[in-house]
Amino acid sequence: QNTIQGRDALVQFLAAHPESRKSAEARAVLGRMNVALYRDPTVTPTNPIYTVKKGDSLVRIASQNKSNAEMIYWANGLSSINLQIGQQLIVPLFEAALVVNRANSTVTLFNNGEFFKEYPAVSMALAGSPDAAPVETKVMDRMARKGEKRVPFGDKNYADTERFVLLGVGGATIKPLPAPSADGTTPPAPSGIVLKPEDFAEIYVLVKTGTPVTIQ
């Protein structure tokens, strides 16, 4: 209850003071609250609860409920794709939209038109200037590859894949910052929109092919 009240207070603050010097900090806190509350079934009743039956898998449950297996895995904080009969799972419903702000180097995620979370980009290399007119595009694909081969979620090699989100304009991508190499050196940031690994992981799970994207 206190978390809900805190979230509502931040929403009201941002609506009343959008240009405040504290607005970025307030959005950061609000985003963390939104993620926590979204994964709490007592707070987000719009997300159905599914009871696992014999023969169920995450892919099957997702297909039956028009959801996404990886999103179910994330929303329930699972550590394995193996399910137990009688286990209760949140089946998340999420209608994502992204706004990429070149001037502020941020990627903002919306759910059903409402602010969900803002992610500061580590780097952002996109064609066009920050003063250019906004571009409306969409997510063309979510890729998980090992070498040249696509690897589906749930595959034993999935954890070792290179993942990125392909946008429908100029081959732009959203990617995670590469991990340091074995000798401790940090590889150069790739082109496109580069996010912290934990931030990329959330966006990767919550968007899908066709998610609308505004680049401004």
Structure, described:
- With 216 residues, the chain is of the alpha+beta class.
- 25% of the residues lie in helices and 29% in strands.
- The chain is built from 5 helices and 11 strands; from the N terminus they run ααβααβββββββββαβ.
- It has an 8-stranded mixed beta barrel with strand order 3-4-5-10-9-8-6-11.
- A hairpin with a 2-residue loop joins strand 6 and strand 7.
- The radius of gyration is 18 Å and the shape is globular.
- The mean pLDDT is 90.
How would you briefly describe this protein structure?
The chain is an alpha+beta fold and 216 residues long.
What fraction strand? 25-35%
Shape: globular
- Number of discrete helical segments: 5
CA radius of gyration is 18 Å
Per DSSP E runs of 2 or more residues, the count of β-strands stands at 11
Identify the strand order in the major beta sheet. Answer: 3-4-5-10-9-8-6-11
Q: Give the integer mean of the pLDDT values.
A: 90
Helix content: 25-40%
Question: What key phrases describe this protein's structure?
Answer:
216 residues, alpha+beta, two-stranded antiparallel ribbon, 5 helices, globular
Q: Layout of SSEs?
A:
Layout: H1 2-16, H2 23-38, E1 49-51, H3 58-64, H4 69-75, E2 88-90, E3 96-101, E4 106-111, E5 114-125, E6 135-146, E7 149-150, E8 162-167, E9 173-176, E10 192-195, H5 197-206, E11 212-215
Parallel strand pairs: 3-11, 9-10
Antiparallel strand pairs: 1-2, 3-4, 4-5, 5-10, 6-7, 6-8, 6-11, 8-9
Helix pairs in contact: 1-2, 3-4
